[in-house]
């Protein structure tokens, strides 16, 4: 399994058309990016699609954000490991025991275990949305709180916004991986994302991996856009 940290871009393949996604993927090289499969493509096209990407040589982040009782989540991350994915995630708000059991379930895969990370506060959420959930902390404080819980449970990192990256690196150390969606090259549409940052600023702030979907996949030339982003953060 590749651990090449110079390959920071994880492309969010959010397509409702399997062939369109594969046509795009076939123009890419596993040496220039990793791929993320989320709820939309997994629900349409299932584990076979994930296996196809793995067979093409790509590191695949299976972004299904498991959130359930510990036993169920432990079995779900085991199923992800069986697909050969590079990274899988759970929601930190599923709790300490859930995260710990998920990590324990992957131990039997040794060095072939996927990285296990936890979602803290979705990048589409701001202070107002947290308040509506009854959470009175700022997004930043809630992210730090959940990230510390995830680290204590033995996870490899978290999903957060790049806006929290500098603080998390200073409090949790460099080896705890930060995977940051909500990446928007200057001038691109934020869409539903609230806590955003440009690729260059995200890397400077300490993001290990940049999750980028629409700014690449909906660009007029997605391959050229990926190459421009890679050049900008090299
Ligand atoms: O907090 C989170 C967690 C996951 N995501 C996912 O990342 C991509 C972002 O896509 P864009 O098109 O670049 O907005 C998408 O698949 C989300 O499900 C996130 O955005 N925020």
TrEMBL record:
A GO cellular component annotation in the UniProt record: cytosol
GO annotation terms (biological process): 'de novo' pyrimidine nucleobase biosynthetic process; 'de novo' UMP biosynthetic process
Catalytic function, reaction form: orotidine 5'-phosphate + H(+) = UMP + CO2
Residues annotated for substrate binding in this entry: 14, 36, 63-72, 123, 184, 193, 213-214
Catalytic site: 63 (for ompdecase activity), 65 (for ompdecase activity), 65 (proton donor), 68 (for ompdecase activity)
A GO term for molecular function: orotidine-5'-phosphate decarboxylase activity
Pathway it works in: Pyrimidine metabolism; UMP biosynthesis via de novo pathway; UMP from orotate: step 2/2
InterPro entries in the record: Aldolase_TIM (IPR013785), OMPdecase (IPR014732), OMPdecase_AS (IPR018089), OMPdecase_bac (IPR047596), OMPdeCOase_dom (IPR001754), RibuloseP-bd_barrel (IPR011060)
EC id: 4.1.1.23
UniProt entry keywords in alphabetical sequence: Decarboxylase, Lyase, Pyrimidine biosynthesis
Uppermost EC category: lyase
Stretches assigned to the Orotidine 5'-phosphate decarboxylase domain: 8-229
Pfam family, one: OMPdecase
Quaternary structure, from the entry: Homodimer.
Recorded family membership: Belongs to the OMP decarboxylase family. Type 1 subfamily.
HAMAP family: OMPdecase_type1_B (MF_01200_B)
Role this protein plays: Catalyzes the decarboxylation of orotidine 5'-monophosphate (OMP) to uridine 5'-monophosphate (UMP).
Protein name (database record): Orotidine 5'-phosphate decarboxylase
Organism whose genome encodes this protein: Pseudoalteromonas caenipelagi
Lineage, uppermost ranks: Bacteria, Pseudomonadati, Pseudomonadota, Gammaproteobacteria, Alteromonadales
